[in-house]
Amino acid sequence: MKHWRQVVLYLTTAGIEACWLYALLAIINDRGAGGQLSVPGLLLLYPTAFFLNVLSLWLGWHALLRNIIHATVGAVALLLTIKFQLFSSLPMSDPAWLRALPQALGGIFYSFSPELWILAASGLVWWLGRRLAQTCVTFTIAVAEFQFGLFFLLILFFFVATFEVKLSNAVPLALVFFLFSLVGISIAHAEEGENWLSRLSQGYWLPLLFVTIGVILVLGLLIGSLLTPDFIQTIANAIVWVWNFLWDLFIRLMLFIARFFPEPEPFEMPDTSPPQPQDELGGFKIEELFPEWLRGAIRLGWSVLMISILVFALWRMFSQIFAWMRRRFGGRAEAEYESMPGAFKADFLGFLKRLFYRILGLKLVRWQKKVEAPEISSIRQIYRQLLSWAATQGYPRLAFQTPYEYLYRLEAALPESREPLEFITQSYVSARYGRYAPSEVELDQLKESWHQVKQNRLAPPPGESAK
Amino acid sequence: MAEVITNVDVRRVGEAAEKILNNIGKVIVGKRDVIRLVLVALLSEGHLFIEDVPGIGKTMLAKATASSLGAAFKRVQFTPDLLPSDVTGIYYFNQKTSEFEYRPGPIMANIVLADEINRATPRTQSCLLEAMQERQVTVDIKTIPLPRPFLVIATQNPIELEGTFPLPEAQLDRFLLKLKLGYPTEDEEGMILQRFQEENPLDNLKAVVEAAELLELQKLCRKVHVSESVRSYIVNITQATRSHAGVKLGASPRASLSLYLATQSLAAIEGRHYVIPDDVKALATPVLTHRLIVKAETGLRGQTTESIVADVLSHVPVPVEEKS
Fold this sequence. Notes:
The complex is a heterodimer. Chain A has 20 helices and no strands. Chain A is globular, with a radius of gyration of 28 Å. In chain A, 74% of the residues lie in helices and 0% in strands. By secondary structure, chain A is mainly α. In chain B, 43% of the residues are buried. By secondary structure, chain B is α/β, with parallel strands linked by helices. Chain B is globular. Chain B contains 13 helices and eleven strands. The chains are: A mainly alpha, B alpha/beta.
């Protein structure tokens, strides 16, 4: 892969994440911090974490040293963020802000204070920046980023609309998000040799990229000019009118049915209310049982639990919808689809797992050793695509077949692709069982081999050809 | 975390294995797959059980292996009147020194050929149990360690059953691999005649790897990486033998360990620093078949331990990606 294309891919991925991050931070600022935070200031942590990690990887530092430096720089960055966000009026040389800092941080256990939001937001932004540096952006990653970002933006916009949060630039944000997503996906797809950018006009790649951007912007403007607030209001009024009409009908129907039932005899309910505990305990209040900090922690835990349940419910709902779509469209040979785990589950669970280990400080070193290199993930992804592709053509891998046993079957069905098939299988086996992370050149060769294989079609299975 | 074998070490194991393979190949015509399994046993420090009809080359294979290693080799012809002390050695009273002295038996060698092991009584067969598992023998009240590397190659003729004593399960379980040489092909048989026309090539066979080097190679093989998924695959296979409908007694945990060690050695011989499921499949039959006891009705249906292992392998899922 050419170096500058990889840079563009990283930029687009960063752009996608920055869009939903911006929306999230704006909501937090409006609802949690009372407008005290500077969202662009918080977003600055993202490139800082990214470049620090890229630099440490480039210099080939040991993982432990890398973690120590990240923790140190992260803590300093957090400190500076709090300083500039909350104590901007005080000069740096004034130690008053440093003295006020412990008290400010101590308050995070009692309420949803701006300090708490700064801590949470900074941690998230820092982690995302570092994560991006450790990710090899492929087509799959680009699609997953788009899917997750879209899903998350929709939730955020729903939140904005429901609770009337101030987010003035939602439309440009959505447009920019789509712009980055489409450009990123196009480039990643072009690298894997599957779209018009690579197939028809490889030599005019850059002009075509600008054309794509132009087309997207023009389309965005057109849609923006057509979808005026009045037009949307008219549609909304129509929907409300239809809904009221249907509800009215339903109520009338219920009243009509209710007429056929006899009316119940009125009777007095006995007083079953429990005696007031205050009287018995001499005015003792339940709040006095727990200190304020504990109640704050319980409130926080309760909120996290509720949000987790909500996210889990949404995830289950969308996974069901995606599963249905996969069943529906998965049978088509040309169809490419991304599974729900690829879009959301892996990232989310990975984040929770890491957070858990960070908090408890358990098995961190062991877990880090188990983290799979992004190159290995890419190989496994390509092999999964090969399995899906062959399965749709009547050559599913049987559960007891090893990769090499399966290779013999595929070679028999596709003798002209013997070499690329062998190369893919060999790469997969060494990555899967030998933890071998290939170089960038090898990864490119692998993509090229996969591209070659996809150009052909497998011979029909023996049973089918006989028919 | 376990130490990982380097590429240089893998090459070293592969080259040594190739040398031994070629050297044994000067005596044994063809049968490279069987010789490769012998190498697996050597590198895993496991014992070999060769079952086949007479005249196939079982003893020749054992001798050629010993000669290739430059290791001390002893042969014991197992007969019904053989006593344990004939194998382990005895303490005798030396009248000159007026002390009891140990006279080592043939077990005190690097490679011991237990020829026609099923002809000895169970008592004598059992004297090998301690030697094979713990690499030591206890004579009278004294325990004597055996030289390393230590490898027992036992042979058995499956045809003659009169005057034989079947090996107990505990004994069979101590053999890493069970091999069958099989008859040579027409070309191979012709080549055997040609090769042995003037002299026995075994007489001129020279050692290509020293016993001390073999010990180092064994240690290197233990560093071959086995991923968690492959490890689980090995366990799943042995567990599946225990729940198989046709099996009375399935493979033991020692069988799992044997399969694990053997796959590491095979991977190193193949020039890989990691084990793949193909290694497990290739070794499942020689490692597991002699450890299973089939039900009587299963045997009557014509099923053998080989067919049961094949059945298990065709049902246990291999750890590979699921399609996306």
